[in-house]
Amino acid sequence: MKKKAFIAIISVSMLASMGTGALAATKLQEIKAYLNPEIKVQVDGTYTELRDVNGNAIAPISYKDTNYFPIRAISDALGVAVDYNSATKTIILGEKVDGVSIAKEFKDMYHTKDPAQTTFKGKDYKEAYFNTGSGDRSSNFMLHPNKEHQTLYLQIAAVDGDITDFTIEDSNNNIILKKVDVIKSAEGLVTIQVDIGGIKSLYIHGKVKSGATVFVPLTTSYYK
């Protein structure tokens, strides 16, 4: 529903507010337009106040009987990822063609590049989250897609014991995006897919028993 609404709205909402230094471009044309705070926006039947990247309320620009909104504000309201490629001057909406490894900027005490810990069933993944903590415990880490990606493809394996109550949450809004009751050790490496459009940070956690290890290959887990 949201994606259908997005297509309809975006057809009249193509003013990009991406901090691209557009004023320096040579193909800009000066126009006369007006801010129109009387225009309201509904998303799935609920009125929504659009905001800029700093959280300030914004009004659309009216020009020749058409209303224009910053594309970032619309994408945030609909939960659709938006990014900008400065090299090609391209606005990217939704899922990207090429995946982006979660290894980039991943930080956690269990982040390792030790081949003894990054290898699973004969394949060396070069970088991994390898939680070998002692005792019954919660295994958890953070990811920061920063609203730039639509989907997370997370690979994970339970070693020498199952992972239970595995959960992926929107950490800024305390909303559960995905929950798996049990990831069995016998399953080997599994891939969990979750929609993360419009989400800034993720809290990923699960429960493991003493002696069990949580293995997440960072180079083959990715955003799109």
UniProtKB/TrEMBL annotation:
Keywords: Signal. The keyword Signal applies. Residues 1-24 form the signal peptide. It comes from the Bacteria. This is Copper amine oxidase-like N-terminal domain-containing protein. It comes from Paenibacillus paeoniae.
